[in-house]
Amino acid sequence: MKKIWVLIVIAVIVLGIIFIPKLLFNEGDKTVNFTEVSKNQIPSKLQEVLPSYKTEERALACKVKDEIYIIVTRGEKRTEGYSVAVEKIEKLEKDNETHLIVYAVYEDPKPDEIVAQVITYPYTVVKTDLKELPDKVKLKTRYKE
């Protein structure tokens, strides 16, 4: 019985170390709702902007008719088989500025996969429920396993 109480106390301490700093230092964190926009539904204003950024690996926010869109680009790739998807978007209020952190998942072709040798520019566009453009946008990526 004593071992169970020791384990419970240790679990509470560990959880406290993990969650208390998040609660104390959270300055308005929020998950942003979004929906992926199919390639043929991308607004023409975004289609005009996209060529300027498709060679870069980045995330950017654009406002079109009171709607806020996030574009994530992977840059130039030498073959087909590369993709990018937005996993989640977080909004942080910090020092009177709005920061977005865009979490993206990259997928590369498998080493033994046969793919066309053609230059591609993988990207994705999502429409958010935001009302205003953020001050800063940060891209965090991980590779699909």
Helix-strand layout with pairing:
Elements: H1 2-25, E1 30-32, E2 34-36, H2 44-53, E3 57-64, E4 67-74, E5 83-94, E6 97-107, E7 123-128, E8 136-143
Parallel strand pairs: 6-8
Antiparallel strand pairs: 1-5, 2-7, 3-4, 4-7, 5-6
Characteristic key phrases:
alpha+beta; membrane; PrcB_C_dom
Q: Please give the radius of gyration in angstroms.
A: 20 Å
Largest sheet: 4 strands, mixed
In total, the number of strands is 8
How many helices does DSSP assign?
A: 2
Structural class: alpha+beta
Q: What percent of the residues sit in helical stretches (DSSP H or I)?
A: 10-25%
Give the low-pLDDT segments: none
Form type:
flat
List the helices and strands in order: HEEHEEEEEE
Distance between the first and last residues' Cα: 42 Å
The number of distinct structural domains comes to 1
Biggest sheet strand line-up: 1-5-6-8
Strand portion: 35-45%
Q: State mean pLDDT (0 to 100 scale).
A: 90
What this model shows, in words?
- With 145 residues, this protein is of the alpha+beta class.
- It has one domain.
- 23% of the residues lie in helices and 41% in strands.
- The protein contains two helices and eight strands.
- It has helices at 2-25, 44-53, and strands at 30-32, 34-36, 57-64, 67-74, 83-94, 97-107, 123-128, 136-143.
- The strands form two sheets. A four-stranded mixed sheet has the order 1-5-6-8, with no helix packed on it. Strands 2-7-4-3 form a four-stranded antiparallel sheet, with helices on one face.
- Strand 5 and strand 6 (97-107) form a beta hairpin.
- The longest helix has 24 residues, at 2-25.
- The radius of gyration is 20 Å and the shape is flat.
- It holds the Pfam family PrcB_C.
- The chain crosses the membrane at residues 6-25.
- Keywords: Membrane, Transmembrane, Transmembrane helix.
- This is PrcB C-terminal domain-containing protein.
- Residues 68-128 form the PrcB C-terminal domain.
